[in-house]
Amino acid sequence: MAYQVPEPKFFACTKSTALAEKIAKSYGTDLGNVLISRYSDGEFQPSFEESVRGARIFIIGSTHPSSENLMEMLLMLDAAKRASARHITAVMPYFGWARQDRKDKPRVPIAAKLIAKMLEAAGATRIITMDLHADQIQGFFEKPVDHLFASTMFLPYLKSLNLDNLTIASPDMGGSKRAYAYSKALSCDVVICYKQRAKANVISHMELIGDVQGKNVVLVDDMVDTAGTLTKAADLMMERGALSVRAITTHGLLSGNAYERIEKSQLKELIISDSIPIDSKSDKVRVLTCADLFADVMHRVHHNTSISSKFLM
Questions:
Q1: Residue 301 phi, psi (nearest 5)
Q2: pLDDT tens across 181-226, in order?
Q3: Among the four residues 60, 188, 286, 308, which has the most C-beta atoms within 10 Å?
Q4: Tally of domains in the chain
Q5: Which positions ≥6 away from 262 have C-beta within 8 Å?
Q6: Which domain, by its residues, includes 192?
Q7: CA-only gyration radius of the chain, Å
C-alpha cells in the first residue's frame, strides 16, 4: 500500500488570525487550536491544544509592531519544538525589523540578522515570507527561506486596469530592481525618484529621474509606513505632467498620519496586500489577499514540489 503523507497542521498568531483563516481555507483545512494564557502584568503563554508530535506544522504570523507579535511567534516556535513537531515552518507574510539590515551608522544593531537567529534558535526549520525589504536578508538564515514575490498577485490586477501609456516608478533608488522587474513583465518604461532623508520617515529632498509627461504611473515598493515617500512622489509626478499616479506596496504598515496624507495626495489608488491586518480608513486603499499565494506555496512545500515560479517577478 502506498504511503500517505500526513496532512500538515496550521496555527495562527493572534494578530494574523484573519489571514491565517483565509490561507487555511484556500488550502482546504482548518486552523488548529491555540490557547493564549495571559498574566496580569502582560506576560503571555501560547499552548497548542492538540498533539503536533511528528507533524509538519505551519505557524502563520506577521511580525509587524508591536514587538508582541514577534514574541508570540518565537514562543509558538519554541512550544512546537518542545512538543516534538517534525517540521516547523514560520510563515511570516511580513518580516518585521527588516529595515535594519545593515549598519548604516556606528553603534547600531543589525536587527534583521538578530531576528533571523532568534527564529532559528526558537525552533523554525523553514521560513516562508514575502517581499523582504532587502533580498540579502535570506542570507542571514542557516535554514531554508522561501522568499515569495507579491508581483504574482499584483501583476494580474495591474493588467486588468488596461492603462495606456503605462510607466512603472520606484520611489527611491533602492527599489529600482523591483521597478525594472515590473516594467519587464508589463513591457513599459521606468522612472526613478531620488530622495534624501533628514532622518527616519522624514524626506528633505526628492528629484525625478525620467519623463512622466502624459503617462499613467504606477509606483511600486515593498512597504508603506507613514506614506510620506509615496505621496510626495505622486505629487511630484503629477506636477511633471503625469495623467494619473497609483501605488502598489506589499506591506501596509500605514502608521502615524498615513491615511491623512493619502487622502490629501494626488494618489488615485493605493493597492496593498493583507500581509498585515488593516482596517482601511480611505476609499483610495484597495486590499488584495495573499492567502491563495501562501496556501499554494505551503501545499508545494509539504508535497516536495517546485515553488520556483513563485520566486519570479
A1: -60, -45
A2: 999 999 999 999 987 765 665 666 788 999 999 999 999 999 999 9
A3: 60
A4: 2
A5: 227, 230, 231, 270, 282, 284, 285
A6: 151-289
A7: 20
Same domain, 121 and 43: yes
Q: pTM for the full model? A: 0.93
Report yes or no on 1 lying in a domain.
no
Residue-wise DSSP of 20-36: HHHHHHHHT--BPPEEE
CATH number (domain holding residue 281): 3.40.50.2020
DSSP secondary structure, 90-103, as one string: EEESS-TTTT--S-
The strand order across the sheet containing 145-148 reads 9-12, 56-60, 87-92, 126-130, 145-148
Asked if residue 270 lies in contact with residue 224, where contact means CB atoms within 8 angstroms, the answer is: yes
How many other β-carbons are positioned within 10 Å of the β-carbon of residue 104?
A: 9
Nearest to 222 by CA among 150, 285, 310: 150
Q: Any idea which residue has 488548529 for its cell?
A: 32
C-alpha cell belonging to residue 59? 505557524
* Catalytic residue IDs: 195
Is residue 33 within 8 A of residue 49, CB to CB? The reply is yes
In the beta sheet, which residues pair with residue 23? none
